[in-house]
Design goal:
The complex is a heterodimer of chains A (223) and B (487).
Chain A: H1 2-17, H2 21-41, H3 49-77, H4 89-112, H5 119-138, H6 142-161, H7 169-197
Helix pairs in contact in A: 1-2, 1-4, 1-5, 2-3, 2-6, 3-6, 3-7, 4-5, 5-6, 6-7
Chain B: H1 2-18, H2 24-47, H3 61-88, E1 93-95, E2 100-104, H4 107-126, H5 130-148, E3 151-152, H6 154-183, H7 194-199, H8 206-224, H9 232-239, H10 242-269, H11 273-295, H12 301-322, H13 325-355, H14 366-369, H15 371-384, H16 391-405, H17 409-434, H18 447-465, H19 469-481
Antiparallel strand pairs in B: 1-2, 2-3
Helix pairs in contact in B: 1-2, 1-4, 2-3, 2-4, 3-4, 3-10, 3-13, 3-18, 3-19, 4-5, 4-10, 5-6, 5-10, 6-8, 6-9, 8-10, 8-11, 9-10, 9-12, 10-11, 10-13, 11-12, 11-17, 12-13, 12-16, 12-17, 13-15, 13-16, 13-18, 13-19, 15-17, 15-18, 16-17, 16-18
The chains are: A mainly alpha (223), B mainly alpha (487).
Chain lengths: 223, 487
C-alpha cells in the first residue's frame, strides 16, 4: 500500500511538471488504476461483493471513461499543450515539494489525533487534493482546470479508502456517479466554450464583472 | 415514510420523462401537475404530524420548515416559468447588452433539469446521512448548471462554467470533511447517520469533528455564497433566466445552509457548538460587509439582487453564530428571504423582458410603464431591506436584539452598520428605476407573470404581522437543536 501511495505522489509531480496535456491524461489513467487496486490491499476490511463493485466501477470511471472523455475533448480542440501557465513548471514542481511537506505534516497531525492508521496513504491523498487545487488555480486552459478537479477527486477518493468500512457502499457509488456526471458536464461545456470562443482559455473568460462594458452602447454590431 | 420518498422520487421520474416528451403542451402539463402535487404532498406531510425518521431520510423540524417552503417556491416559479419559457422560445433571441443573437436550450432539457433540481433539493432537505446529503448537494449543482446555461450566449456559458467548477471543487472539499466526520467516531458505530452521531455525541473525537466542520463550512459555504467564497454567485444569478435565478436564490442557497446546519447540530450535541458559531459570525459579517461594498454603485439590477443574496446569507450565518433567540431569528429570516428574493427575481424578469436591459440607469418610470410589476418591485425593495411591516424586519430585529442581549456589541454594531450601507446602496437604484417619467407607453402584464410574485410578497407581509403558532413551535424546536432558544 505504501508503495502504491508513493506512485500516486510521483504521478502528481509529473502532473505538475507536464506541459503536454496528453501526458497529464495518462497520469490520470495511472492514478485511476492505482485507486482501483488500493481497496483490495486494505487489510482490515473483508472483501465482499460491494467492495468489488465499488472498486471496479471506480477503476472503470476514473481509469478509463473520464480520461477518455478528456482525451476526446483534447483531440477536438486542437490543443496539445498548456501554454504560458500563470505559474511556470519549475516553480510548480517546487511548490509541489512544499505542498507534499505540508500534507505529510497534516497527515501526521491527523494520525496523532487517533482513529486512522495509514499516514502514508493519507499524506498521498492530501497531496493529490492540493495538487488538483493547484492545477485548477495556476493553469489557464479550461481543460486543465477540469483535469485538476479530477485529480482532486482522486485524492479524496484515496482518503476515503481508509474509512470505507465506515462509509456505505451505496453512498460511495452515489459519489462516483456525481463526479462522473460533473466531469461529463464539464466536457460538454468545453465543447461549447471551444465553439463559442475558438479557444478554451479560462483566463479569457472574463466578461462578467462588476464594471461590465456593454459593446452595444458603443455601437456594437449584430452578428 | 413513503410520502417522503414520493416527494423525492416523483419529481425525479417526471423530470426524466420530460427529457423525452416531444409535445410542448404535454410537457408543460407534466411540469405543472408535478409542481402542484408536490406542493399538496408536502403540505399533507406537514399536516399529518407524523415524523418518520429512517436511516437515510427523515422529517425533523428543519425539514418541516424548509420542505414546504421549497415546494411552494417551485409551484410559484412553475406558473411564472411556463409563461416565461413560452415568451422566450422564439428563436433566435436578441441579446440587448452585447447586440448579438443567441438561441436557448431546448425546452425539454430545461423542464427536465428543473424537475430533477427540485428532486435533488428535497433530498438535501430530507437526508439524515452525511454521505447521502453530500451526494444530493453535488446533484443540485449538476442539475442546475444546464439551467444557468439556458440562454446560449457566451456570458451565460462563462457564468455556468464558473458555477460548475467553483462549486464542484468546493464541494469536493466538503467530501473530505464528510470522511473526517466518519473518522471522528470510534469504530463500530454507524458513523455518518446524523441521528446516530447525535445519540453517540459523547464518544466523538472533537479534533476530527472541528476539522470536518471547517471543510464543510468552506465547501457548502461556497455554495451558499458566503464571502469571500461567493464569486460564482453574482455571475450565475445575473446570467441565468429569471425563474432559475429565483429558484437558485430562494431555494438552493437554503439547501447549502442546511448542509452546514446539520453538522452544527452534531457539534452542539458534542459540546463544541461555540467553535462553529465563531466561524459563522466571521463569515457572516464578512459576507454582509463585502456585499455592501459591491451593492454601492452596482450598475446591473440583477447583480444587485445577487449581492443582496450574499448579504442575506451573511445575516443567516451571523444569526446562527450569535446563538440564543438569534437562531430562531435566522431560521425565520431564511423563510422571509426566500419568499422576497424569489419574488424580486421574478419581477426583475418582467422588467427585463419589458425594457430589454439589465442596466439600472436605462430603466425609468417603472411604476408608470408596468403598473403592477413596478409597484411590487418597490414594495419588494422595502421588504428585502428589512423595513416594517414585512417579515424580514421582524427576523433581522430578532437577531440584532439577541446580539445586544448577549453582549456581542461589536457584532451588533457591525451588523447594524452593514444593514444601513446595504439599505442606502439599494435605495438609489430602486428609486431611480421605479419613479420618474417613463419613455415607453404602458405595457400589459400577463397575470401569470405578476400573480406569483404578488402572492410571495403578500406572504412575507403576513409573516411580518402574524406568525402562526404551529410555525413558531417548529422554529423553536429547530432552534433548540442548533443550540439556540425559541420565542
Amino acid at each position: 500500500m505504501n508503495t502504491l501511495s508513493g506512485f500516486l505522489i510521483v504521478t502528481c509531480f509529473l502532473l505538475l511538471g507536464a506541459s503536454r496535456l496528453k501526458v497529464s491524461v495518462r497520469m490520470l489513467v495511472a492514478q485511476g488504476t492505482i485507486l482501483g487496486i488500493i481497496p483490495f490491499l486494505h487489510e482490515t476490511g473483508t472483501i465482499d461483493a460491494m467492495t468489488w463493485l465499488v472498486a471496479a466501477s471506480g477503476f472503470f470511471l476514473k481509469g478509463i471513461i473520464l480520461p477518455w472523455l478528456l482525451l476526446h475533448v483534447l483531440n477536438q480542440s486542437a490543443i496539445r499543450r498548456e501554454i504560458e501557465p500563470y505559474v511556470g513548471y519549475n516553480i510548480s514542481i517546487l511548490s509541489g515539494i512544499v505542498l507534499l511537506a505540508l500534507s505529510c505534516w497534516v497527515a501526521m497531525y491527523l494520525v496523532a489525533a487517533g482513529g486512522y492508521n495509514k499516514p502514508v496513504l493519507m499524506a498521498a491523498a492530501l497531496f493529490m487534493v492540493l495538487t488538483g487545487f493547484f492545477l485548477v488555480i495556476s493553469r489557464r486552459k479550461a481543460i486543465t482546470q477540469a483535469l485538476g478537479y479530477l485529480v482532486m477527486e482522486n485524492g479524496i477518493y484515496a482518503a476515503g479508502v481508509g474509512v470505507s468500512s465506515e462509509f456505505n457502499a451505496i453512498v460511495e457509488l452515489g459519489v462516483l456517479l456525481d463526479v462522473s456526471v460533473g466531469v461529463f458536464l464539464m466536457g460538454i461545456m468545453l465543447f461549447h466554450i471551444n465553439r463559442e470562443f475558438d479557444h478554451i482559455d479560462a483566463a479569457r473568460l472574463s466578461e462578467l464583472n462588476d464594471n461590465p462594458v456593454f459593446p452595444a452602447d458603443e455601437g456594437g454590431t449584430v452578428r | 415514510m413513503s410520502i417522503l420518498w414520493a416527494l423525492i422520487i416523483m419529481p425525479a421520474v417526471a423530470g426524466a420523462v420530460s427529457f423525452f416528451v416531444r409535445s410542448d403542451r404535454f410537457r408543460h402539463a407534466i411540469w405543472i401537475l408535478t409542481a402542484m402535487s408536490h406542493f399538496a404532498l408536502s403540505v399533507a406531510a406537514v399536516l399529518s404530524n407524523i415524523r418518520p425518521v429512517g436511516a437515510w431520510i427523515g422529517f425533523d423540524a428543519l425539514a418541516i420548515l424548509f420542505l414546504p417552503l421549497t415546494s411552494l417556491l417551485f409551484l410559484g416559479i412553475t406558473f411564472y416559468g411556463t409563461g416565461y419559457i413560452a415568451r422566450n422560445q422564439v428563436t433566435p433571441d436578441f441579446d440587448p447588452d452585447t447586440g448579438s443573437l443567441f438561441r436557448s436550450v431546448p425546452e425539454a432539457v430545461f423542464t427536465g433539469c428543473m424537475l430533477l433540481f427540485l428532486s435533488s433539493m428535497c433530498l438535501v432537505i430530507l437526508s439524515r446521512h452525511f454521505g447521502l446529503q453530500w451526494v444530493a448537494i453535488e446533484a443540485t449543482t449538476l442539475t442546475s448548471t444546464p439551467l444557468i446555461y439556458y440562454h446560449r450566449h457566451r456570458r451565460s456559458l462563462e457564468a455556468a462554467w464558473k458555477y460548475l467548477l467553483i462549486c464542484s471543487v468546493a464541494i469536493a472539499l466538503a467530501l473530505l470533511g464528510v470522511f473526517f466526520i466518519a473518522l471522528s467516531v470510534p469504530a463500530g458505530y454507524e458513523s455518518l447517520s446524523i441521528d446516530n452521531l447525535i445519540r453517540n455525541a459523547a464518544h466523538i473525537n472533537t479534533k476530527w469533528l472541528e476539522m470536518a466542520f471547517i471543510l464543510l463550512l468552506i465547501g457548502y459555504g461556497t455554495k451558499m455564497g458566503l464571502a469571500p467564497l461567493h464569486t460564482w454567485l453574482p455571475d450565475a444569478h445575473s446570467e441565468a433566466p429569471s425563474p432559475v435565478s429565483a429558484m437558485l436564490s430562494g431555494a438552493l442557497l437554503n439547501c447549502a445552509f442546511i448542509g452546514i446546519l446539520r453538522l452544527q447540530q452534531v457539534c452542539v450535541a458534542a459540546g463544541i457548538g461555540s467553535f462553529g458559531q465563531h466561524l459563522l459570525i466571521v463569515f457572516g459579517l464578512l459576507s454582509m460587509g463585502m456585499a455592501g461594498v459591491f451593492i454601492l454603485r452596482q450598475p446591473d439590477y440583477k447583480r444587485l439582487l445577487a449581492y443582496s443574496s450574499v448579504e442575506h446569507m451573511g445575516i443567516l450565518a451571523t444569526g446562527i453564530g450569535v446563538g440564543g433567540i438569534a437562531v430562531f431569528g435566522a431560521l425565520l429570516h431564511a423563510v422571509n428571504h426566500s419568499l422576497v428574493k424569489s419574488m424580486l427575481f421574478m419581477t426583475a424578469g418582467n422588467i427585463l423582458s419589458a425594457t430589454n436591459t439589465k442596466r439600472v440607469e436605462k430603466v425609468n418610470g417603472l411604476c408608470q410603464m408596468l403598473p403592477v410589476s413596478g409597484t411590487i418591485w418597490f414594495a419588494g425593495f422595502l421588504a428585502i431591506a428589512g423595513s416594517p411591516p414585512f417579515g424580514t424586519f421582524i427576523s433581522e430585529f430578532t437577531i440584532l436584539k439577541s446580539a445586544f442581549d448577549q453582549g456581542h456589541w461589536i457584532t451588533a454594531a457591525a451588523f447594524l452598520t452593514f444593514l444601513s450601507i446595504v439599505f442606502v446602496g439599494m435605495a438609489g437604484p430602486f428609486i431611480h428605476m421605479c419613479f420618474g417619467k417613463s419613455s415607453q407607453p404602458v405595457k400589459r402584464e400577463s397575470w401569470l407573470s405578476v400573480a406569483p410574485p404578488l402572492i410571495f410578497l403578500f406572504l412575507s407581509l403576513i409573516l411580518g404581522i402574524y406568525i402562526p403558532a404551529h410555525m413558531t413551535d417548529i422554529l423553536t424546536e429547530a432552534a433548540h437543536c442548533l443550540g439556540g432558544a425559541g420565542l
